[in-house]
Amino acid sequence: MNRYEDPLALVDVTLFTIQDGRLSLLLATRKNAQEPYCGALALPGGTIHTDEDEDAQDAARRVVRTKLGIDPPYLEQLYTFSGRTRDPRRWSLSVAYYSLVPEQVLEETPIEGLEFVPADAIPGLPFDHNAIAAMAIARLRSKSTYSSLLTFLLPPEFTIPELHAVYEQVTGSTTNIAAFRKKVLDEGMIEPTGQRRKGGQHRAPDLYRRRGTGLQELKRTI
Amino acid sequence: MNRYEDPLALVDVTLFTIQDGRLSLLLATRKNAQEPYCGALALPGGTIHTDEDEDAQDAARRVVRTKLGIDPPYLEQLYTFSGRTRDPRRWSLSVAYYSLVPEQVLEETPIEGLEFVPADAIPGLPFDHNAIAAMAIARLRSKSTYSSLLTFLLPPEFTIPELHAVYEQVTGSTTNIAAFRKKVLDEGMIEPTGQRRKGGQHRAPDLYRRRGTGLQELKRTI
DNA sequence: TTAATAGTGTCTGTGAGACAATATCAG
DNA sequence: CTGATATTGTCTCACAGACACTATTAA
User: Fold this and answer.
1) Do both A158 and A92 map to the same domain?
2) pLDDT surpassing 50 at residue A112
3) Which site in A143, B42, B115, B217 is 20 to 30 Å from A149, CA atoms measured?
């Protein structure tokens, strides 16, 4: 039926977290079995396993689970990269995903062959992985301004100053926190837990949680 | 190397135009050679030809060229739909695109087995094509509000009232044209040609063109 | 001149953003 | 109390949107 050679079908994941206060992403050393570029640092990924993966998102989830031992709290399709020459093996097609994970979740995770690098200091990567990572960062920056996306980089309960710090780190903007507080509160994407964070040196900040389980988005008007 | 059966690699295109003042999209009758669902109306698409297509976008462009005989003025990747059961043949992966074409371009095109249906009256389609079309419509609606996207549904020179009519047709909003005019003009996405459209019954409207060759997008602030 | 459509100017409400003032914590 | 951080309140500016007014066309 199909007269043409099938493309190689892959998934790749750009997994973000906060490390030492900086937006960082996960790179993995490619194993010996993983030709080509084995031994090199790259975005975690691999071929779709049509016998066990229900769909591409499922394949991406498996990749994260295999590397980190956790199910990613947030995982969204980014873009599909394709072409004759992007992979030396053959015509290939990689469905790219990006994921957000709070740093607290990663503390008890195996770091075998894994490395987190700051998003503004990504080394040269094989394939078109630098382009994938760049698009993931752009998407994250953009979506941070009109959704509850950044709450997925924080633990279930967090404070406005914490969210503001992540916002500044990701977007590079330096708006004052009072305006930021008002905006996120009357957008209604987060809600107060009624508790405060005790134990700090100073005034205890109010705790909030994401409203609803999934991502909240704002709509534009005209 | 690859122990798993390769997925079927496809592209599908949701091609929008304006017909009789309504947002419409293209459906094509699947040919006899096109198992499964041959004879049914579906989104135009097909397998990626790894021997002639440079990448998936190229494959989508070929699909449009084959059906309509034209290179689509606007073609953008939408989403990749995948899974074990979405195609009866086998585990499949379809990179979906959407395209915008002015109705004037389609006037001298072969209509062999082609049909345009209003976007709010799409019949039942095979595969997950209804989900693809729904996402394409949602993307078009959303992006219409903050980009020059809708100008690709109009000829190279157009008037503000024409653009406004398309805007209302696509988004369903009914904002008054004065506000719309001011917004699109100081966004700077279109520019006056200096000419007016002669021959109407009433005051001749100013003509505009898209500024730049490609899509213009607005950025949000916070 | 009239009817119909196109384009411009003015007013208002909303919300981002800056800044000041108040509140709360530990020492 | 003091110093540091958190939160709230006030003011301003930008802009979407409504509406009224002016402009242009053909009959």
Assistant:
1) no
2) yes
3) B217
